[in-house]
Amino acid sequence: MPQLRKIDVHAHILCQETISLMRKEAPKVGPRLEPIDDNFAVLEVAGSAYRPFPRGGWDMSRRLNDMDAAGIDVQVISNTPQTFLYNQEDALTAALSALQNDQISRAAARNPTRLVGFATLPMQAPELAAAELRRAMGTLRLKGAQIGSNINGRNLDDPVLEPLWAAANELDAFIMVHPTGVAGAERLSSYYLTNLIGNPLDTTIAAAALVFGGVIERYPRIKFLMVHGGGFVPYQAGRFSHGWQVRAEPKARLKTPPQASLDKLLFDTIVHGRPALEFLVSSCTAARVLLGSDYPFDMGTLECVRQVEALSIAETDKATVLGGAAMKLLALA
Predict the structure, then answer these.
(1) Alpha-carbon span 313 to 307, nearest angstrom
(2) Who's near 293: CB < 8 A, 6+ residues apart?
């Protein structure tokens, strides 16, 4: 039996080499870093600034040191959501996605015992996204992809995305859904609510679209991970099922009860509370809850391993959450 490794499935990267290559490819869109101090910078992408961007996002030595301190053996690295770039021209996003995927693959190859990777895709162009997913999982040997919770305001059940879902199903792909361009942003501008509420809300909308749009039912081989503990989905799953029973609208594209689709969703551990995490594991089973840090962002946590180890759950369930489930789902030796 392979030795259990603690595997963080939700971690982001945008190294300096990637930044330079993206700026060379697209000077007006590519990222730039403006240092704040030794530990933080302002990250600007396509004219939009994010602050503070922690050093671990671009500094591999800092990342590996932080992983060691946190007790994380392996990170599954994905692009920063700021570089989805779904609002750019199709060809440009495709080129920058391919560049990032090459870099993520290279980082994993340079650190083969510590890193594996997810791709990013030009989701506004589903045929190009499908082709890049095939290249990323075939040639680059990435383990799947990270995608946004909506594509320029279109939900993930939009029929235009069918070519991507068909490819992902054929590849048995792991698809991590991350919030972006969150709903209701005009009402969430105060108190950092765009993240505190907006991110889990948009994850919930994405999950509901995948369930009620029949995407999970039609493409059962795709492994969908809903980050940040799945938003409000685990807590409101009963409401989804009740609504399908008593209303016609939820049956429009989903002909069987939603529980079967809900039972296929995966969630990470980023809920920031012991009772909530224990509820998530007990209600969804340990096999569907995967360790996540959201590294290097401030709404993540490097306490994720210790948080799982402190739970009042069976030791076998702790091992499953810490890495056992990820090893199976991602086919890690």
Answers:
(1) 12
(2) 8, 10, 11, 70, 72, 75, 270, 300, 301, 302, 304
Structure tokens at 105: 């693959």
Provide the token pair at 302: 């490097």
pTM of the full structure: 0.97
Q: Hey, what domains does the chain have and what are their CATH numbers?
A: 7-13+67-329 (3.20.20.140)
pLDDT digits (tens, 9 = 90+) for 219-260: 999 999 999 999 999 999 999 999 999 999 999 999 999 999
Q: Which residues contact 136 (CB under 8 A, 6 or more apart)?
A: 101, 105, 119, 121, 142, 145
For all residues of the chain together, what is the average pLDDT?
A: 97
* Sheet strands side by side (includes 115-117): 7-13, 74-79, 115-117
When pLDDT is cut at 50, 70 and 90, the band that residue 333 belongs to is: confident
